[in-house]
Design brief:
The chain has 343 residues and is α/β, with parallel strands linked by helices. The chain is 36% helix and 15% strand.
């Protein structure tokens, strides 16, 4: 698969990242899948970002990008499939299992609240996965903004996760995201009710602008089994706040690749956010620079730039930076894999 890595991207790496990044990067939030995971003959809509990657994003595709983007880093990852209603959840878990060695590459299953517990257990155990990821798309009996965390995570599924010490990566619902009072209550209740489950709040609770995170991390910060990942957060103020208000040993770097490989940047506008895009793909509330007035790098690089700025402002030590980029995730997922006797 050809990759669009530009000379300006290489210059960016050399000038801003080469001397900052540690030698190992663990990306805790990557979507991987091949053609077997989608219906035969399925084509993504014209402006879906998956079209850029030929309707798939395999481990080999990911590593090809990473070799160009992070040429001096050893790369580790945690992956799951693509949360589309057309996605075959069993085939996706099988693909994730095939590419996960539980040493360098770890994997989670996508699950639906409609899945019975036997199918969930089989998806995890048969494919040697360390947890699962629900998604609000699979809650099809409510309007999108009425969905709750507990709609996404039935008790039986969570009891299984808790009994086995699995990880759950949670993309929280509702338009106010982290700031929503229902989410605030249910995030804490979920962590307390299932204390042996590692709950990873993706995208720092989908807090992409400063007002949406300020004052809203205290509840989950007090839960020792709550983690946050930084996927698609390229707002240095949000990251600085998280570094100061959330236990640093429970912060995981994540990218949200392949979406993060698009050219663009998330920007805060009047206590809102938008994706300013250099490519005409539709992700969330995208604004496309049709006149090509701006030269973009990738969301992935913008995230790394933001982590660097935030780490400096929050006065993170070198060891803390290394742990956010690698150690925290590697220890977490390795411990789960060892407990499940995968390694």
């Amino acid at each position: 698969m050809p990759i669009d890595f530009k000379q300006s991207d290489q210059a960016f790496y050399m000038a801003e990242l080469k001397d900052f990044l540690p030698g190992k990067i663990f990306d805790a939030h990557v979507h991987l899948f091949d053609n077997s995971c989608m219906p035969q003959g399925y084509e993504f809509p014209p402006k879906d970002c998956c079209r850029k990657f030929g309707g798939r994003f395999t481990l080999e595709d990911c590593l090809e990008y990473i070799r160009a983007m992070l040429p001096e880093q050893d790369f580790y990852l945690n992956s799951f499939g693509f949360p589309s209603v057309e996605f075959n959840l069993d085939a996706g878990a099988q693909y994730t299992g095939r590419v996960s060695d539980n040493k360098q590459y770890f994997g989670m299953a996508l699950i639906s609240p409609h899945d019975n517990i036997d199918s969930v257990q089989n998806r995890i155990s048969a494919n040697r996965l360390i947890g699962y990821k629900p998604y609000l798309n699979f809650v099809d009996w409510k309007k999108k903004d009425e969905i709750t965390i507990f709609d996404m995570l039935p008790d039986e599924q969570m009891e299984y996760a808790n009994a086995n010490g699995l990880a759950v990566t949670l993309h929280i619902p509702r338009s106010a995201r982290l700031a929503d009072p229902v989410n605030q209550q249910q995030m804490v209740e979920l962590c307390r009710r299932y204390p042996h489950t590692k709950i990873i709040l993706a995208h720092i609770g989908r807090a992409y602008y400063l007002q949406n995170v300020t004052g809203y991390l205290d509840g989950i910060a007090g839960c020792p089994n709550a983690y946050i990942d930084t996927a698609m957060v390229n707002h240095e103020g949000v990251l600085e706040y998280a570094f100061n208000k959330f236990p640093r040993e429970r912060i995981l770097f994540g990218s949200d690749a392949p979406i993060a490989l698009l050219h663009g940047k998330s920007v805060e506008i009047n206590n809102q956010y938008a994706y300013l895009m250099g490519e005409d793909y539709q992700i969330g509330n995208a604004i496309y620079d049709a006149g090509h007035t701006v030269e973009f790098t990738s969301f992935y690089y913008e995230q790394l730039r933001a982590v660097k700025l935030a780490a400096d402002r929050a006065r993170l030590s070198g060891a803390e930076v290394e742990n956010i980029f690698f150690g925290n995730a590697f220890r977490l997922f390795s411990q789960i894999a060892a407990k499940l006797k995968y390694i």
